[in-house]
Amino acid sequence: MSWNKLTQVQADKFFLRIKLKPLEPYINSGTPRKCECQVCGSIVYPRLGDVKKAKSCVKCQFCGVTLITRTGTFSEGAHIQGLGRPHYGSDVHENMLCLCPNCHALFDRGALYIASDGKTLVSTITGKKTDIFLHERHELDLKAIAHHRLHVAGIREATRKSTS
Hints:
This protein is of the alpha+beta class. It folds into two domains: 1-55, no CATH class; 57-156, no CATH class. It has helices at residues 8-17, 48-54, 101-108, 142-151; strands at 20-22, 35-37, 43-44, 67-69, 72-74, 76-79, 96-99, 112-114, 120-123, 129-131. The strands form four sheets. It has a three-stranded antiparallel sheet with strand order 1-2-3. Strands 8-9-10 form a three-stranded antiparallel sheet. Strands 4-5 form a two-stranded antiparallel sheet. A hairpin with a 5-residue loop joins strand 2 (35-37) and strand 3.
């Protein structure tokens, strides 16, 4: 797919299907346009690669559930390090997760966090640990994970004492 080959109608349908509301005309611009995320309300300028990846967001990366509705599947794009105040995270693929509404709410409120390995989900309530469902090419931002762990979940890393 190429940005240049989409008509205005095709572009509008495509963006809305992946939960982005176009805010600017698009036709033959060859570049991404300004959109509003219908999940979190943030203003984004999606890159084609990020949009392609977002199309495959159907299964919760934490619990594995796929919500099926009358109109298709439903999931939410969640930022690991939130956008805007007070977190100032980036709107990039490495800072994004595909979550069901329940896991998204628990993650945003610090009841769930990602361990420092970037692959293990931990509950602050039960201490239970499970693997995150990650595509082999979906690398998560370890700095964003550390920020979420400290500032949202309130988990401080244990410091190791040196024995010298």
